[in-house]
Amino acid sequence: MDILIVMCIGILVGRVSILRRAKKKNEYLSLFCTFILIFSMGVMLGKKDHFFEELSSLGLTSFLFFLIPTVLSIGLVYWLTRVFMKKDK
């Protein structure tokens, strides 16, 4: 629920015309927050005692989390395109 609230606040902030003028500052702030997020994720992973032993299973799991939705999404878009975007001959 918290994520939904944050997303709605982000949408509202993006719609306010006063904040559109501060677009460049907002871009820098977003980049900085992304760097902080990546750094903190690295620190959390680095604190694990058996990180290198778990790395192979983490890599396989994350690869499957990437591969399965990607393949299914491409297949669904391909099928929907063939069904609904037929060319008139």
From TrEMBL:
Q: Which UniProt keywords apply?
A: Membrane, Transmembrane, Transmembrane helix
**What organism is the protein native to?**
[Ruminococcus] torques ATCC 27756
Reading the lineage from the top rank, the first entry is Bacteria
Protein name per UniProt: DUF340 domain-containing protein
- Give the transmembrane ranges: 28-46, 58-80
